[in-house]
Amino acid sequence: MYKLLIAEDEELERIALKKIIESNFSNINVVNSAKNGEEAVNLARTYMPDILLIDIRMPVKNGIEAHKQIIKFHPTIKTIIITAHSEFVYAQEAIKYNVYDFLLKPVSPSVICNCIQSIISSTDKITTTVETPFSQEIINQCLNIIELNYLNDLSLADIAQQVHLSEKYFSRYFKCKTGHTFTQYVQMLKINRAKTLLLNPNMPIFRIAMDLKFSDSAYFTKVFFKHEGLTPRQYRQQYVSNKL
């Protein structure tokens, strides 16, 4: 199932685009819709969609600026920009930022569907070809996505889909290149963040566990001790003692 995000400031346009996509694609989930560029960036960070359908002229942040910001944490997203003829000269700026396509208003449902189908077909072709070992660039992309989204219920399958590889293949080569499983790497990020938060003596340990998406304080303590050889409380006390 592919995830698609719509960004359009006109409500009727958002509704129409959603209806077109849902009536023509059974393998696409329209995860949400944004009414301005800033909201599009925030929703893209939350949902990590495969496809972004975005208007170029929107309040707060225009479509080009939103796309440029999104690809910093989601470099494999396929962005389709919708633009009017008079705005096309501005849209050309986005070519160097790997925009997938421009659709000129007024745009027909068939043109929208053909463009989206082209993305799906090219993605399916990539995932069904013989997989080759990771390049360092792909590993860096994966690490960047994980580090920016590890508190957003990010899964191994999500990352594998972003780089168009099978989950099994991604898992094996991720461990080969990093020395850690995906779960271990996410836990390391959480523990490193916890160590920073523990330096604030006014922040309750249960709150840190909650913010880092641990199921409860006991499990947080168990994982922290496994990594650091100290409980969170002992780590905090050690820091306070060293300051005295």
Automatic annotation (TrEMBL):
Keywords: DNA-binding, Phosphoprotein, Transcription, Transcription regulation. InterPro entries: CheY-like_superfamily, Homeodomain-like_sf, HTH_AraC, Sig_transdc_resp-reg_receiver. The keyword Cell membrane does not apply. One of its GO terms (molecular function) is sequence-specific DNA binding. The modification 4-aspartylphosphate is found at residue 55. Residues 140-238 form the HTH araC/xylS-type domain. PROSITE patterns: HTH_ARAC_FAMILY_2, RESPONSE_REGULATORY. The keyword Ribosomal protein does not apply. It comes from the Bacteria. Residues 3-120 form the Response regulatory domain. GO terms for biological process: phosphorelay signal transduction system. May play the central regulatory role in sporulation. It may be an element of the effector pathway responsible for the activation of sporulation genes in response to nutritional stress. Spo0A may act in concert with spo0H (a sigma factor) to control the expression of some genes that are critical to the sporulation process. This is Stage 0 sporulation protein A homolog. It comes from Aminipila butyrica. The lineage of its organism: Bacteria, Bacillati, Bacillota, Clostridia, Peptostreptococcales.
